[in-house]
Amino acid sequence: MRGLAAIGLFVALLAAGAAQAVTPDEMLKDPALEARARALSGELRCMVCQNQSIDDSEAPLAKDLRLLVRERLTQGDSDRQVLDFLVARYGNFVLLRPPVEWQTLLLWGLPPLALVAGLIGLVMAARRRPTFAAEPPVLSGDEQKKLAALAKAGE
Amino acid sequence: MIPELGHYALVLALALGLIQSVVPVIGARGHDAALMRLGTSTALMQFFFVALSFLALTISYVTSDFSVASAFENSHSMMPLIYKITSVWGNHEGSMLLWVLILSLFGALVAAFGGNLPATLKANVLAVQSWIASAFYLFILLTSNPFLRLPQAPAEGRDLNPILQDIGLAIHPPLLYLGYVGFSIAFSFAIAALIEGRIDAAWARWVRPWTLAAWTFLTVGIAMGSYWAYYTLGWGGFWFWDPVENASLMPWLAGTALLHSAVVMEKRNALKVWTILLAILAFSLSLIGTFLVRSGVLTSVHAFASDPTRGVFILIILVGFIGGGLTLFAWRASTLKQGGLFAPVSREGALVFNNLFLTTACLTVFVGTLYPLALESLAGEKISVGAPFFNLTFGPLFLVLMALMPFGPLLAWKRGNILGVAQRLMAAYAVGIVALAVAFAVEGTQSVLAPFGVGLAFYVMAGAVVDLTERTGLFRMPLGIVAKRAAGLPRSTWGTAVAHFGIAVTLLGIIGAGTWGTERIVALKPSQTVSLSDYDLTFDGMIARSGPNYSEQVARFTVKSGGATIGVMQPSKRNFIARDTSTNEAALMTRGAGQLYLSLGDTNPDGSIAIRLYYKPLVMLIWLGAIIMMVGGALSLSDRRLRVGAPKPANKSAIKPTLQPAE
To answer: Is B289 close to A94, i.e. CB distance below 8 A?
Structure first.
C-alpha cells in the first residue's frame, strides 16, 4: 500500500500493514542463522516496493526473497555468497547499499570529497590571513578621510 | 456557490500577488514611499483571500459537498469531524492550498510586524515573497484546482485513505509546512539583500528569528512525522531514509547550518556571503522537496514522464527560483563587504566547522536521494540507495559533529583557547566515560559501538550543562550570585544549551531502540502466553468492534511484569467500509522511556494469530529530544536581543510575541 508517499506529506507511511513482513512460519529454527537472515534482509530491496527492504515489506516478492535468502543460508552459503547470488539474479538494484563502481563513484565520493575540500579551503583561508586582531583593522581611504573630518570637527 | 467563492478568492490573491511582485520593487528603486507601502497592504490582503479560499474548501469538506471533486475523492460523510477537516490537506490539491496559506501567512506577518525594517528592504522582501506566492497560486489554479466541480454530484464520497485517518494528519503536515515554508522568509530576505547589494548585522538580526521559528517548527514537524510512521507502520521503525523523509531532512540540515552562520553574522558581521548562500539553499531544498514529492518522480521516473504537467510546472518554479537566486548570488555576492576577522580557533571557527559538517551531511542526503533518479534518467541504470548507505555515510559525519559540539559554545569569540575549553569539559568526559562503562556493564558487548554512542550522548548532555554552569558560575560562586548570573544570561544562551542537550537525548533514543530492542514473532492461540524482556503477554481472545466508518477485530492481551498485571494491550485490524481497505493498529504501552509495541499479523486456519511483539528501550527519547530542541528554539526566540528597540504597540506583542521580527 502506498500511503503518504503518494500523497506527499513528507513522511514515509509506505507500508501500513507491514506487520506481516516476517511471518512466524518463515523463521529458521537456528537463531544464529535467523539473525543472519534478518541482517541480510535489511540490506536487500524489495524490488516492487518503493525504497523498502525485504525485511519490512509485505509484498509477495519480498516473502519469496526472504525464503530464498533463508534457503541459501541453510545450504551453507556465506553472507557474501547470498548477496552475490541475488545480484547475479536481479542486478545491483537489489542492494540497498550500492557497490562502489564507476557508476556510483560520485555517490560514494562526493560527500567525503566535499568534506576534504571544505577542510582544505578553511585551512587555506586561515593561512591567507594569519594576522588578525593583533593589528587594528586598516581603514579605507574614504574612512580615513571621514575620520580626519571627524577629528577636525572635534577640535 | 461556496467552492466558486473559494476559487475566486484564490484568483484575487493571485492578482494581488502579481501587483505585490512588481510595485514595491519599483517603489524601492525610486524611493517612492507610497509604492513601497503598497506591499504591506497587499500582503495582508493576500493572506485574507487565501485564508478565505482555504475556509471555503474546508466548508466543502465539512459539509460533505461531493460535487467538489477533491472532496468526493478524499472525504466521506460518516467520517468524524476532525478527519473531515484534516482530509482537506490529505490530498495533493488541498495540501498545496495549505502550502500557499502558510506562505501568505508568513508574508502577512512580515507586513504586520516588519514596521521597523528599512522601507526599501521591507518592500523588496515582500516583493520576493510575492514572486514565490504568485508562482504557487498559478500552479494551483492551472494544474491542481481543489475547487473543481463534478458535473453530477455523487451521493457519497470515496473516503480518506484509511492510513491518513489519524490524528497525525492534523499535527504533522501543518507543522512541517510551517517549517518548510518558513524558510521562504530567509530566502526573500537574502534575495532582497542581494538586490540592494547591502547587508549587515542588523539584517542577520531580522532574519534570525524567522529562521529560528521555521527551524523549530520543522524540527517538531519531522519528529511528529517520525512518531506517526512509527506507530502506524506496525514494526516500530522510526526513520526509513525514504526520499520523502529526506526531502524534509535536507532543509532541516541546511536550516540548522543557516541558524548557526547567522549567529556569526549577527555577532561578528562575518560570513555574510556564506549566510546569504545558505538562506537561498535552505529554501531551495524545500522547493526541491516539494518537487520530489509532488511530481511523482519518486514513484518512478516513467510515471513522471507519462503525466508531467504538474511535475514540469514545479520544475519550472524550481529552476526559476533556485537558478535565479543562485545567479543573482553569483552576480551580486562580491558587492557584499566582508566583515570581522577571526582566528581559526574561535567561536566563529567552531561555527564554520559546524557549517562544514552540516552542509556535507546535507550533501550526502542530497546525493543519496537524487543519485538513483539521475542515474536512471541519464544512463538507464537502476540502483537502490537505502538505509544501509545513509547509516554508513551520514552517521559518522553526524557523530563527529556531535563529538565536537560541546566545544563550540565554550570557545571565546575572535580567538579561543582550545586547551582551556578541553580542560573545562573534564566533567563532561567523566560523565561520558561513566555512561560508557555502565552501558557496557548492563548490556554487555553484543554491540560494541552502542555503548560508545551512549557515552557520546551523555558527554554532549553534560557538555551542555557545563556550558551553563561555567556561565552562571555554579559550584564556584555563592548561590546568590549564581542565581543573578543565571537570570542575566541571554535566553539564546539557554536556548543553545537546551537544544544541544535535546539532540543528545535523541541520539540516546536512537541507540537504545536501534540496538537493544528485542522482538518476538510468533503465532498465538487464545490463552497462550508470550514472554519478552520482563514482560509476559497472555492472548485473551478476539473481540469485534465497530467505529464510525470502520469495523475492527481487536485482539486483547493482558500484560504482566514480575507476576503482577500492569495493563491490557489491544492491537487491532480495521476494515474501512468505503474503500474496503484495512489497516493495522498497533498497541503501544509506554514503560519509562521505553515502549512495548504489539501488532497483529495474519490469522491462521488453526485459530492462532501471528503477532509481532517488540520491546524498544529508550525509544521515547527520540521524540522527547526533538521536543527539547523545540523548547531550545523557543527560548532562543524569546531572547530580548531579538526584540529590543521594537516600536511596537503593546497589544500586538501580546498576540504573537515569538514571531516578532527582530528589531
So the answer is: no
> Which among B247, B353, B384 has the least Cβ separation from residue A10?
B247
Tell me if B342 and A96 make a contact (CB, 8 A cut-off).
Answer: no
8 Å CB contact between B465 and B451: no
d(CA A134, CA A137): 9
Which residue in the set B95, B172, B523 is minimally distant from A8, CB to CB?
Answer: B95
**B583-602 per-residue burial string, b: 16 or more CB within 10 A, e: under 16:** bbbbbbbebebbbbbbbbbe
CA distance B318 to B302: 20
Cβ–Cβ gap B244/A107 under 8 Å: no
Residue with cell 538562506: B279
Angle value at C-alpha B528, between B524 and B531, nearest 5 degrees? 85
Taking the CA of residue B453 and the nearest CA in chain A, the distance in Å comes to 21
Contacts with A111 from chain B: Cβ below 8 Å:
360, 363-364, 367, 393, 397
For the record, the C-alpha cell of B77 comes out as 460523510
Contact state of B523 with A25 under an 8 Å Cβ cutoff? yes
* Rounded Cα–Cα distance for residues B453 and B459 (Å): 10
Cross-chain CB nearest to B522 (options A24, A52, A111): A24
What is the C-alpha separation between B482 and B469, in angstroms, rounded?
Answer: 9
The gap between the terminal CA atoms of chain B, to the nearest Å, is: 44
Percent of chain B at pLDDT > 90 equals 59
Q: What is the pLDDT of residue A28?
A: 84
The rounded mean pLDDT for chain A is 78
Model confidence band, residue A133 (pLDDT cutoffs 50, 70, 90) = very low
Instruction: Give tens-digit pLDDT for B46-56.
Output: 999 999 999 99
Q: Which of A17, A24, A119 sits opposite B584 (nearest CB)?
A: A17
B173/A51 Cβ within 8 A: no
- Which residues of chain A lie closer than 8 angstroms to B89, CB-CB? 9
pLDDT at A85 over 70: yes
For residue A97, list chain B residues with Cβ-Cβ distance below 8 A.
385-386, 388-389, 392
Q: Do A132 and B586 touch (CB under 8 A)?
A: no
Distance CA A81, CA A103 (A): 23
Nearest CA in chain B to A27: B521
3 state SS of B149: strand
Name the residue with cell 513601497: B36
The alpha-carbon gap from A155 to the nearest alpha carbon of chain B, in Å, equals: 30
Q: Is A124 or B254 the better-scoring residue by pLDDT?
A: B254
pLDDT in tens, B614-634: 999 999 999 999 999 999 999
pLDDT given for residue B659 in this prediction: 40
Long-range contacts of range B392-399, CB-CB < 8 Å, 24 or more positions apart? B392/A97, B393/A108, B393/A111, B393/B364, B393/B368, B394/B361, B394/B364, B394/B365, B394/B368, B397/A111, B397/A115, B397/B357, B397/B360, B397/B361, B397/B364, B398/B357, B398/B361, B399/B453, B399/B456
pLDDT, tens digit, for every residue of B425-465? 999 999 999 999 999 888 877 778 889 999 999 999 999 99
DSSP structure string for B225-254:
HHHHHHHHHSS-------HHHHHHHHHHHH
B218 to A22, A93, B178, B505: CA distances (angstroms): 34, 32, 7, 18
Considering only residues B130 and B341, tell me which one the structure prediction assigns the higher pLDDT. Answer: B130
| Strand partners for B613 | B520, B598
Q: What is the mean pLDDT of residues B515-532?
A: 90
Please give the mean pLDDT across all residues of chain B.
89
Q: Which helix (H) or strand (E) holds B615?
A: strand B609-616
- The number of residues in chain B equals 663
Whether B579 has its CB under 8 Å from any CB of chain A: the answer is: no
Nearest-neighbour CA in chain A from B340: distance (Å):
9
